[in-house]
Amino acid sequence: SESWLPASSRLRSRDFLFGVATASFQIEGSTEVDGRLPSIWDTYCDTPGKVTNGDTGKVACDHYNRWAEDVDLIESLGLDAYRLSLAWPRLITRDGKANPKGFDFYKRLLDALGEKGIKRFVTLYHWDLPQWIEDRGGWVSRETAYRYAEYVDIATRELAGRVEAWATFNEPWCTAWIGYAAGRQAPGHTDPVLAIAAGHHLMLGHGLAVPLIRRNDPGAKVGIVLNLQPATAATDTREDRHAAKLAEVGQNDWFLGALLKGEYDARFFELRGAVPAIVPGDLDTIQQPLDYLGVNYYFRAYVSAAGAHDYKDMPLDGVERTQMGWEVYPEGLTYQLVTIKQDYPNLPPVYITENGMASDDAVIDGEVEDDSRIRFFERHLAAVSDAIDAGVEVSGYFAWSLMDNFEWSYGYEKRFGICHVDYDTQVRTPKKSAYWLRDFVARRS
Ligand code: PNW
User: Fold this and answer.
1) CA 115, CA 250: separation in Å to the nearest integer?
2) What's the 3-state SS for the chain?
3) What are the pocket residues of ligand 1 if the criterion is a CB atom closer than 6 Å to any ligand atom?
4) What atom of ligand 1 comes closest to residue 229's alpha carbon?
5) Could you report the predicted ipTM of this complex, rounded to two decimals?
């Protein structure tokens, strides 16, 4: 039954794209072949205590060798689009030149997708910074924005004509804040001052890259992917509501303001007691016209004046949680989309570039019964439909993820895939949710 979806929904039209998403480091493996250089995630994985069970990206889903089978899998589900990322350390040598073997891999992959009519959404940076660039200061250094622009220039010239939509960055908030302030992702620094500098250099890299992509690949769309998160006040006091508002400013408006208004919200820098080194002209460079905004949505935060709570600490009765401990909160997606449309009237069309949940799935008699994931998709698609009805232009939805993969500091324990991966045999088994998505997509008018 599809009664959960309003009959008027644009989601039933074939020009609303349905896809699945992955990222290079999470699926590829083969980290030491064909001239790939080490990334900050290889280093982080090799640092004892950082990743659950000492898991690494050395093999992952072996997608580097099994890409053709994975393309067939996407085709067999009848999906319109596939969102993937390029590994910068595969593509650029230590002296800043193109690595032909790295580009050959992505050319084969993108061509196979194109031949099957699957639209290619390609993210240029999904967290795997070359370690040699981190050694020179990483995103804390302004130089990295220029190294990134050089990489983007080479990559988009090499791959021009093979991509429908480029994204400069995946979730700059995670790179800057989790990587440089919270320390729970590579490179694992724990200083908000560093994170605020990193955030500005990510934005600068974006601004430098967009005109290069447009020049090199004029037929493709250009955008960026942000993870947006609504914050709910832990109590209804004025102080807690103020703290929740500031949390949203720090998580969402930090980058939306720079990208769409050409300004940073000073309240965030005041809160953190740090201001990035902004060179005159930087914000003009950053504020580039965008063809789309990618929105990744997972859950909300609970915030009190006493500090940002891990909502896991919140005593919330009757809250449904995923294997990550994340609350299932579809209403937050509608709220988030409607809020950014109100706050940013020049908001470009939105793609939901990631949405999904982890569950502890197992194959039993050849089947994976992930009914909770089906319910999760249904409720979040209905939330997208509500946002569309409220006037937000949403053009597509990508499930995270095509298959179970390396869930960063959680390693392989957390399973986000619509296809199960057996890490001993590398067998992919579509879960019940994959067939649900296939059938939903097939029945569109
Ligand atoms: C995203 N948070 O990361 C990433 O883009 C994916 O690579 C990842 O696998 C997926 O979400 C699932 O985690 C996030 O704590 C990591 O709010 C953390 C958060 C949000 C997104």
Assistant:
1) 42
2) CCCCCCCCCHHHCCCCEEEEECCHHHHCCCCCCCCCCCEHHHHHHCCCCCCHHHCCCCCCCCHHHHHHHHHHHHHHCCCCEEEEECCHHHHECCCCCECHHHHHHHHHHHHHHHHCCCEEEEECCCCCCEHHHHCCCHHHCCHHHHHHHHHHHHHHHHCCCCCCEEEEEECHHHHHHHHHHHCCCCCCCCCHHHHHHHHHHHHHHHHHHHHHHHHHCCCCEEEEEEECCCEEECCCCHHHHHHHHHHHHHHHHHHHHHHHHCCCCHHHHHHHCCCCCCCCCHHHHHCCCCCEEEEECCCCEEEECCEEECHHHCCCCCCCECCCCCECCCHHHHHHHHHHHHHCCCCCCEEEEECCCCCCCCCECCECCCHHHHHHHHHHHHHHHHHHHCCCCEEEEEEECCECCCCHHHCCCCCCCCEEECCCCCCEEECHHHHHHHHHHHCCC
3) 23, 26, 170-171, 174, 227, 229, 296, 298, 354, 400, 407, 416
4) 17
5) 0.92
| Residue 171 among the catalytic residues | yes
What is the C-alpha separation between 111 and 9, in angstroms, rounded?
Answer: 33
Q: Of 134, 248, 354, 378, which residue is the catalytic one?
A: 354
Q: What is the pLDDT of residue 1?
A: 45
Q: What is the pLDDT of residues 61-105, one digit of tens each?
A: 999 999 999 999 999 999 999 999 999 999 999 999 999 999 999
| The pLDDT value given to residue 9 | 82
- Residues 89 and 66: their CA atoms lie apart, in Å, by 20
Give, using CA atoms, the residue closest to atom 7 of ligand 1: 23
How high does pLDDT run on average in the chain?
Answer: 95
Long-range contact set of residues 420-428: C-beta below 8 Å, sequence gap at least 24:
420/361, 420/362, 420/363, 420/368, 421/61, 422/363, 423/59, 426/61, 426/62, 426/66, 428/69, 428/70, 428/73, 428/403
- 413 an active-site residue? no
Q: How far is the CA of 303 from the centre of ligand 1 (A)?
A: 19
User: Residue type at 143?
Assistant: E
Catalytic member of 171, 248, 327, 378: 171
What is the rounded CA–CA span in Å between residue 118 and residue 442? 15
Write the pLDDT tens digit of every residue in 378-411. 999 999 999 999 999 999 999 999 999 999 999 9
Q: Is the pLDDT of residue 309 over 70?
A: no
Does 380 show up as a binding residue in the annotation? no
Q: How far is the CA of 99 from the centre of ligand 1 (A)?
A: 29
- Give phi and psi for 143, each to the nearest 5: -55, -35
- Is 200 known as a binding-site position? no
